[in-house]
Amino acid sequence: MRVCNRTFACLLAASCIASSSVASARASITGVVSRTTSQRVPFFFGETNGIGRTVLDLRGGAGSKTRRKTGKRTASLSSLGEKKTATGRKKVGAAAAKEKGSALSDTVRKYKAILPLTRIYITMVGLTTLVGVVLGEELAQGLLALDPIRVTNGLELWRPITAASFLGQPSVGWLMSAYYLFEYGSSLERAYGTAQHLIFLLSQVGLLSVLSALLGQPFFASSVITAMLHVLSRSMPHQKVKWLIFNVPNWTLPYGLLASDVLQAQSPMAALPHVMGILSGHFYFFHKFVWPKIGGEDWLTAPDFLSRRLDPNARDAGRKSVDAALKSRKKGKGRKLGGK
Hints:
Elements: H1 2-38, H2 41-45, H3 51-59, H4 77-80, H5 93-113, H6 116-135, H7 137-144, H8 148-152, H9 159-163, H10 172-192, H11 194-215, H12 221-235, E1 240-243, E2 246-249, H13 253-265, H14 272-290, H15 304-310, H16 312-327
Antiparallel strand pairs: 1-2
């Protein structure tokens, strides 16, 4: 009986030990599972790699520690309108103002580059045109037109000059005449010098003032332009040039200008200023270039003091060329008088 009790006690103790081990094992398994379950949340929103990390990367959220460093800034609406230099820097106010003033400075530079006498003539054309716009056509003609009685009796000596400068109201014809004046005047002044060009203009103003007074023409600026073209065309009369779509001899250019103005005005009276210009231009050309060749005196040559004043560079260049030619001559031994 005692043996059976001891056996029963041992079995009971063994079963208790087994149950406690099973409970502890179960508790340990439960703790592991709970810890594993608590660590599954960062799989979606934590710092471990997974779907949550991918979602945060796609959204660009704050959860990702590593960001791409591209070195570029995002453009904004204010930065799109910024003016930058070639190096990528922003322009300061002085640089922007300099860019705005470059057009005006370029125009002033081109104006100063025109030859002096042609520049003065173009300035006179601009001033008389401005006076005509401000005062109106009638008042402008009363103030600027050639009037022989007022010139001689009233000593209004500016009228021949203004009559040679006024091209009328601004228009397409005015623009073309101003261009011809610049082109032909610059060519004459460049070819013969400023002093000789002044003699040419003074002779044309004098001759055309007389012709205009006789023929009743109040203005003769277009006649001066035709006279310039005539003198230029007579220098190489038979050279072929292109006029509109035709190849014509150089001497026919003044007559082509005459014909175009007649067709445009639909009146033969439009040819009168050009006829006056051809006559006055031929008078200058004959007495300057033809008459001295047949033994006459060249009385249209610019005086020396005027050439020294207006063309000092041309005088210096001529003197230097003569000195260089004299120095380049070879000196010989020569011969004695009476020697062979």
